[in-house]
């Protein structure tokens, strides 16, 4: 039994100890880059990232309260060979204060935009950053809230259901 199979077996046992009849949905997820054309996003944009200086912006709560040091945007940028910009070098106002508070963040800018001031500081930070492209790994399309002066890519999750069932793989899907 592989480590993944063993982990899956242990997880199912744990879930069954809490609720024996709840269906289990097992999924895989992948990350995909999208570029905005007009008001729509279309798959692609990898060529805008490869080998470029990139500012990676990821989900604020995941990076701050969640303690993660990177998110989906960073992962895709690294996979495509981007040179990640140190976010501390361009941070302004409330964004700078956030980075000082959460000092584990060096390669990813948390998307902080809960107030008008934070949105203005985020916009200023991005626009003053010495990068060639911005990679957003955020659930919200920040380009609808702020105006940036650089090309951008949006990274989104693609989820695929692998299994739905109660116990045995062979009975479902």
Describe the structure.
By secondary structure, this protein is of the alpha/beta class. 31% of the residues lie in helices and 28% in strands. The protein is built from six helices and seven strands; from the N terminus they run αββαβααβαβαββ. Strands 1, 2, 3, 4, 5, 6 and 7 form a seven-stranded mixed beta sheet that branches. It is globular, with a radius of gyration of 19 Å.
Low-pLDDT sequence parts: 168-173
How would you spell out the order of helices and strands? HEEHEHHEHEHEE
Q: How many helices does DSSP assign? A: 6
Major β-sheet profile:
7 strands, mixed
Radius of gyration over all CA atoms, rounded? 19 Å
Distance between the termini: 21 Å
Please indicate the percent range of residues in DSSP E strands (runs of 2 or more). 25-35%
Give the overall pLDDT as a whole number: 89
Envelope shape: globular
Q: What is the β-strand count? A: 7
Quickly give the structural class: alpha/beta
> Considering DSSP H and I runs of 4 or more, what fraction of the residues is helical?
25-40%
Keywords:
alpha/beta; disordered C terminus; 31% helix; 7 strands; seven-stranded mixed β-sheet
Summarize the structure.
It contains six helices and seven strands; from the N terminus they run αββαβααβαβαββ. Strand 1 (24-37) and strand 2 form a beta hairpin. Residues 168-173 have low confidence and may be disordered.
Topology of helices and strands:
Blueprint: H1 3-18, E1 24-37, E2 40-43, H2 46-49, E3 53-59, H3 60-63, H4 72-79, E4 83-84, H5 93-101, E5 109-111, H6 116-128, E6 133-137, E7 152-165
Parallel strand pairs: 3-4, 3-5, 3-6, 6-7
Antiparallel strand pairs: 1-2, 1-7
């Amino acid at each position: 039994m592989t480590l993944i199979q063993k982990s899956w077996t242990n997880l199912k046992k744990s879930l069954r100890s809490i609720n024996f009849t709840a269906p289990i949905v097992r999924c895989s997820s992948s990350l995909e880059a999208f570029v905005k054309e007009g008001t729509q996003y279309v798959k692609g944009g990898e060529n805008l990232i490869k080998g470029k200086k990139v500012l990676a912006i990821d989900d604020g709560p995941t990076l701050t309260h969640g303690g993660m040091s990177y998110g989906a945007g960073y992962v895709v940028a690294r996979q495509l060979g981007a040179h990640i910009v140190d976010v501390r070098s361009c941070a302004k106002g409330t964004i700078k204060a956030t980075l000082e508070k959460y000092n584990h963040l060096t390669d990813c800018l948390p998307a902080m935009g809960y107030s008008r001031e934070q949105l203005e500081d985020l916009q200023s930070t991005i626009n003053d950053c010495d990068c060639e492209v911005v990679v957003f790994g955020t659930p919200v399309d920040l380009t609808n809230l702020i105006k940036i002066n650089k090309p951008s890519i949006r990274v989104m999750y693609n989820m695929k259901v692998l299994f739905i069932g109660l116990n045995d793989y062979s009975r479902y899907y």
